[in-house]
Amino acid sequence: MKSKERSSHTSSEHPSTKWRLSRKIGVIAAVFLIAGLGGYWTVYRAQFLRAERAFANGNLAKANHWFQKASRWEWKKSHSTFGLARVASREGDVDQAKRLLVVAENLGYSPAAIASQRNLLQLQSGAGISPDTRIDPRKQLTQAEVDRQQAYIIGLSVLGNYEQAIEVADAWIDQSLDRPEPYWLKAQLLSEHGDDKAARPLFEQALAINPDFLPAISGLARTLNVLEQRSEAKLQYESVISRLGDFVDLGDLSAVGADMLLQARLEKAKIQLDMGETDPVITDLEQLVQEVPMNFATRFLLATEYAKQNKSGKIIEVIEPILPKFPDDISLNYLMATAESERGNLARSTELMDKYLNGRAQLDQLTRLEFEGRNQPPDPNLYTAIAQGYLRYKWDEAEPWLERALQLDPNSPVILAGIAEFYKKLGDQAQYRRYATAAQRLAESGFRG
């Protein structure tokens, strides 16, 4: 009888015990779920903040890296996708920015922010430039307003409105002493127009405000190099390389930050050559050719060093892959003709030397045009014709003529397309995209300059 009672008592308690156990398991699971979600959010937020900080520092490659990381943890991915669109916009990759904005919009990101970013894309290509598009710099600017003010100044410079761009930058400096962007933008404008002596203290002021502001580091490196402050320039280029190296794959020159990293490595190599550090530089250039197979500047610099060492076979090996892209370039044809002659390939050498001599004759004709133009009123068509000749036969000397033409006719799609081609050959993808977009916009509007 007692045994039955115990059995009955045990069976009557079993459902309650089971329920309490289930409840405990549920509570524990909920705690783990909340903790997991909290950790998930913490990781996303940390990566997103890293991206925002890198963007504010102008390190677009690093910002791109962390926005991509953050997108793996964000539930809807709208914020990180919008961040990637801002990076593409700042980089001048209009098509990519537009695609990412559509994705962010479809994911539910703020329509007002999307519209503002699309407007910014137009501004930096020179579209919609008017006084009422300026931001009042007297108030504390948000990052979005900083982006807009920067795009406005870039748009003015793309259209050749140099003095107005300087004026806007000056007004921004007067009212926003704690931001690096206006100092950097004015310095960049001065440097691009040949006044590196005036640009230097502005770059330095930008870095005094924010030592991590990468565009100012890169700009200062170039300015110091122009001013022949080689050792100081080398240090700044090394700073650029160290800040980008972990985030940029030079195998894809369209990648964010690739053009800045490539330029820093090339300019550092040139400085080292001036300092007599030939052997390590040749090794670095050979590695760079492997990383960036079709870059003109890298191969030409390496071939020039091989020529000093009478390595004709190496010259041909380095130049031949890019010769179809630059068939009329006199520098390449001369190096190749000399190398083929040293190897005893006289027929090929004669063919290349004829192309070199033809190019030289064309450049001599351009020189005559330059001389005749000195006694004539400034003519953008003449300057454009001279620039296009240089782009074909000696492209690295085309820039001053393109700049002169642009100052006289800032709305010419032909001139803007020429500038885009110059930057494409230089390997500066951001500037290439910016000017190509502006040229396309003007051409589509029916404007012919």
TrEMBL record:
Keywords: Membrane, Repeat, TPR repeat, Transmembrane, Transmembrane helix. It holds the Pfam family TPR_8. The chain crosses the membrane at residues 21-43. SMART domains: TPR. SUPFAM superfamilies: TPR-like. InterPro entries: TPR-like_helical_dom_sf (IPR011990), TPR_rpt (IPR019734), Ycf3/AcsC/BcsC/TPR_MFPF (IPR051685). This is Tetratricopeptide repeat protein. It comes from Novipirellula artificiosorum.
